[in-house]
Write a structure and sequence with these properties.
The protein is α+β, with helices and mostly antiparallel strands and about 900 residues long. The chain folds into five domains: about 5-120, Immunoglobulin-like (Sandwich); about 125-320, Jelly Rolls (Sandwich); about 320-435, Galactose-binding domain-like (Jelly Rolls); about 440-780, Glycosyltransferase (Alpha/alpha barrel), CATH 1.50.10; about 790-895, Maltose phosphorylase, domain 3 (Sandwich). About 20% of the residues lie in helices and about 30% in strands. The chain has 15 helices and 48 strands. The strands form nine sheets. Strands 14, 20, 21, 25, 26, 27, 28, 31, 32, 33 and 34 form an eleven-stranded mixed β-sheet that branches. A hairpin with a 2-residue loop joins strand 44 and strand 45. The mean pLDDT is about 95. The protein binds beta-D-glucopyranose. Beta-D-glucopyranose binds near residues 472, 484, 588 and 768. Beta-D-glucopyranose (BGC) binds near residues 472, 484 and 588.
């Protein structure tokens, strides 16, 4: 058989946990691959069948022996999230797999490269005990130093395979034979430790040898031992569970598990550590070689057995946090009394790596802030009680390089004090830290302001991934506020591959659900806030839909459907006369009348909480009806719809003013919600849209006039009601309020408040994603025009409909979909438009080409005659075609405006 007889070659085989396929505890993981055309010029390429082989060794796989699973030739076009249906996989097993496909003509491809995943430890196979020290040193000293744990052991052979499973709470760093294991940081991921405790899996085969070996574990406080604020829950003293499984060539096995034979010390170099306050490190206290064999630990105590956290032990099935980028400061400026101010040039999240030479005992301090005061010193008022400072004490005797382990900061500026000598700009490096999801953001346009806004969105998002989606990374908060991610999560899906991240958060959300069905506003519930409002908890309902639309993942809906339904049922109990008077935050952070205010006091700007709660609940019922159909609960679906119908009628009766086409007191948000959730009388939709546009133009002078709630839908509603031009104007204002104003004022991330440069620091973060709303969605789905078809989700069928807006002369963007890269680039020159598209193999697309249908050409001829295209209709100023995969180059003439 010739290689690649088919027009397609399967590449990048992967499980759903792309960069972290170790220790998966889902017994039926799903397998995906991308199809690369052998000739990119071909169109309409599709998979007609696949065969997957899964084997217990690379040798078996190479000889074509799928001893765990041979799917056989399956007639199917599915190439994403194919469920493993092979033999049950034993605890700890590592498996290898590959795939081949048949194309639309039935020609067979070569095999893909090999991929692999491993299974986590079955609960029954855990032999380890939780160890630690349930006290704060002899004098109950505050703060708590990081504990060091170590264990030496003998191996008779060089292992064939060695795997460590470890949960070090709150945070831990594993070392083997003297050096750090893995490249992740701030592990394990955050959870409510009373409900779920995550362990991380490392392959240490190459790190162990025949003879003496040692493991060391540094244990930090994280959010487990979190006694810094009254409102924060704390779970106890740091503790760890660790199991090393060694397999030898001769079939023998060795298990090393945490127990009281491990040694513990509180005299390590990390003297204090707290995520909010920083880390204190005394390099003089580094026990040289503590995680290598041969270290004298006679002065250490035996680790104590401590109680197990009550949460269920589970594998961290999501990407870990890593240092993903290192920034060089743009300048270092002396600032009187020995202080230096370093400017990273970018509001970033993570920490600094320090390079320093000096005498032993010299103490260098690093303090962090997002902005400077007019006198050039750090502005820290908006950090509230977070101390955000690291301290390093030198051991002396050469160049020392250090970075903290168990803290992180949100900052652009660093104040350095106590630095011996004059620090060069290279004395510090900015280490950017977040969940290491694939970064896919790719957008550019002819408007530099829009490109800067895109930059700020991307940095805002990455800075708020801390194994949970946080509100902010700098002040004493950093919580998983649900409301902030409502539709922002859909925006995020164009910037990062967030599938595993949000799947993990869904588990956290369900963990937080009370038996009554109640869902809180913050998850994990480090702050316990159950208000039974509609808007913040509604994110629990929205996220599964986002994962379904953007990734084609129905498992999340299937798995959580009962819990989603339970919350909907719980909230139903608060209905009164068809309205839902349960709201906590209103339209959070609307542009206020006074630039110093955080929240508006002007009744004309405040949308009624009952209006918001009712509108949302109605929209959520429609969404639940959709989910119910996906999971074949048709009775539920009609009940949800029925109730939505009643609420819709009550809402319109209560709030709609037909004479003005406004709702209630006429805020922009009330109109936006009515449009977003279908709450307009059928014959009044156009009037409502027109009135919204008038308000935006007249009352806000073409600026943003909404807060968090309105911002989740505003851009889409303007575009969907024929005002894409207005959406563009609003998005690109340079004056207050708007995203462009932030750029003009020097922001390199997104602010919490539209008036973030003037408002009270009590709640004024420079790095908040909530006001992004659907702005990211607008850039990719509307300006570039790339969006999934909800009927064939996950971009199996793509709708490409660019909105040629404002004075833009080009927009180019791509999206890394489960089927590969979708690209769209349009360019306008006077009345002529060029549109270049790339539709990945094994997908189809409906393409809306802007312009007069008579003028649309593709390649060298009329588009309607072009191979692979089928003209469907002329619609709203577009020529609409059905297309298979391939590259397309359209031209058209735009109608005169
Ligand atoms: C957080 C927000 C959050 C809000 C709700 C703030 O302090 O930073 O992002 O959604 O509180 O009350």
């Amino acid at each position: 058989m010739p290689l690649c007889a088919a027009s397609l070659v399967p590449a990048s085989p992967r499980t759903e946990y792309r960069t972290n396929p170790l220790g998966i505890d889902v017994r039926e993981p799903r397998l995906s691959w991308i199809l690369n055309p052998t000739n990119p010029g071909n169109r309409g390429l599709a998979q007609s069948a696949y065969q997957i082989l899964v084997a217990s060794s690379p040798q078996a796989l190479a000889s074509g022996n799928g001893d765990l699973w041979d799917s056989g030739k399956v007639a199917s076009d599915q190439s994403s999230l194919v469920v493993y249906r092979g033999r049950p996989l034993p605890s700890g097993a590592r498996v290898w797999w590959k795939v081949r496909v048949w194309d639309q003509a039935g020609a067979e491809s070569s095999w893909s490269e090999n991929a692999s995943w491993s299974i986590g430890l079955d609960p029954r196979d855990w032999k380890a005990m939780w160890i630690g020290l349930d006290e704060n040193g002899p004098k109950a000293e505050q703060p708590l130093p990081a504990r060091l744990l170590r264990k030496e052991f003998q191996l008779d052979q060089k292992p064939k395979r060695a795997t460590v499973y470890v949960s070090g709470l709150g945070l831990s760093e594993l070392c083997a034979n003297g050096a750090k294991v893995g490249d992740d940081v701030l592990a394990p991921a955050l959870t409510d430790y009373d409900k779920t405790v995550l362990y991380v899996t490392y392959d240490v085969t190459d790190r162990l040898k025949a003879g003496r070996n040692a493991l060391g574990l540094m244990l930090g406080n994280g959010r487990f031992y979190a006694p810094r604020m009254a409102e924060s829950r704390t779970f106890g003293f740091p503790r760890a569970l660790l199991q090393l499984e060694v397999e030898n060539d001769d079939g023998s096995r060795v298990t090393i598990a945490s127990d009281t034979s491990w040694k513990l010390s509180t005299k390590g170099p990390i003297r204090a550590n707290n995520e909010y306050d920083g880390e204190e490190y005394d390099a003089r206290m580094e026990p040289e070689g503590w995680s290598a064999p041969g270290f004298d630990d006679s002065g250490w105590t035996a680790a104590a057995q401590v109680s197990a956290p009550t949460g269920v032990l589970a594998s961290q099935n999501a990407e870990p946090l890593r240092v993903t980028e290192t920034l060089k400061p743009v300048k270092a400026t002396p600032h009187g009394d020995g202080a230096w101010i370093f400017d990273m040039g970018q509001n970033m999240v993570g920490w600094c790596r320090l390079h320093v030479t000096g005498p032993s005992g010299t103490r260098v301090s690093l303090r962090f802030a997002e902005t400077l005061k007019p006198d050039g010193t750090l502005y820290t008022d908006n950090l509230r009680s977070a101390k955000a400072a690291d301290y390093y004490t030198l051991k002396g005797g050469g160049t020392e390089t250090w970075e903290p382990r168990f803290t992180y900061h949100g900052f652009r500026f660093v104040e350095v004090r106590g630095y011996p000598g004059t620090p060069g700009v290279d004395a510090l490096e900015g280490r950017v830290v977040h969940d290491d999801m694939e970064r896919i953001a790719d957008f550019s346009s002819s408007n530099p302001l829009l490109n800067s806004i895109h930059h700020n969105i991307a940095w805002g998002m990455r800075g708020n991934y801390r194994s949970i989606p946080t509100d902010c990374p700098q002040r004493d908060e950093r919580q998983g506020w649900l409301g902030d991610r409502s539709q922002v999560s859909r925006s995020e899906s164009y910037f990062f591959d967030i599938a595993a991240f949000y799947t993990k958060w869904m588990r956290d959300l369900e963990d937080a659900q009370k038996p009554s069905g109640s869902i809180p506003d913050v998850v994990p519930t480090y702050w316990v806030l159950y208000h039974d409002d509609v808007t913040w908890p509604s994110t629990f309902i929205f996220v599964p839909g986002m994962l379904y639309d953007q990734y084609g993942d129905r498992r999340v809906i299937e798995r959580y459907y009962p819990s989603l339904k339970k919350w909907i049922g719980h909230m139903r109990g608060f209905l009164k006369d068809g309205l839902l008077p349960k709201d906590q935050y209103a339209d959070w952070c609307v542009p206020p009348e006074d630039l110093k205010l955080i929240h508006s006091k002007d009744p004309a700007r405040v949308t009624s909480g009952t209006l918001i709660g009712t509108a949302y609940y109605c929209g959520l019922l429609d969404l639940m009806a959709r989910y119910a159909r996906i999971v074949d609960q048709f009775q539920d679906a009609s009940e949800f719809e029925h109730l939505a119908g009643d609420i819709r009628a009550a809402f319109i009766a209560k709030y709609f003013h037909p004479e003005t086409a406004r709702y209630d007191n006429g805020t922009q948000t009330s109109s936006v919600l009515a449009l977003a959730f279908g709450l307009t009388p059928p014959d009044a939709k156009a009037a409502v849209a027109k009135e919204l546009a008038r308000k935006v133009s007249d009352e806000s002078a073409n600026h943003v006039g909404v807060g968090l709630i309105g911002a989740q839908w505003l851009m889409r509603m303007l575009c969907e009601t024929g005002r894409a031009d207005l959406a563009y104007t609003v998005a690109t204002q340079k004056t207050y309020p708007g995203w462009g104003y932030m750029v003009e004022r020097g922001a390199t991330t997104m602010w919490e408040l539209w008036n973030g440069d003037t408002a009270d620091p009590a709640m004024n973060s420079g790095n908040h994603v909530m006001q992004i709303g659907d702005l990211g969605v607008w850039m990719y789905e509307y300006l570039a025009g790339i969006r999934p078809d909800p009927e064939k989700p996950g971009f199996k069928h793509i709708v490409i409909r660019p909105y040629v807006s404002g004075d833009l002369t080009y927009v180019g963007a791509s999206h890394q979909s489960p089927y590969g890269k979708i690209a769209s680039r349009w360019e306008r020159n006077g009345g002529k438009l060029k549109l270049n598209l790339s539709v990945p193999a094994n997908t189809t697309a409906t393409i809306w080409v802007p312009g007069d249908p008579q003028t649309v050409r593709e390649g060298a001829g009329p588009a309607a005659e072009s191979h692979g295209l089928r003209f469907l209709r002329a619609d709203s100023g577009y020529a609409v075609y059905e297309a298979g995969s391939g590259e397309y180059a359209f031209t058209s003439e735009l109608a005169e405006k």
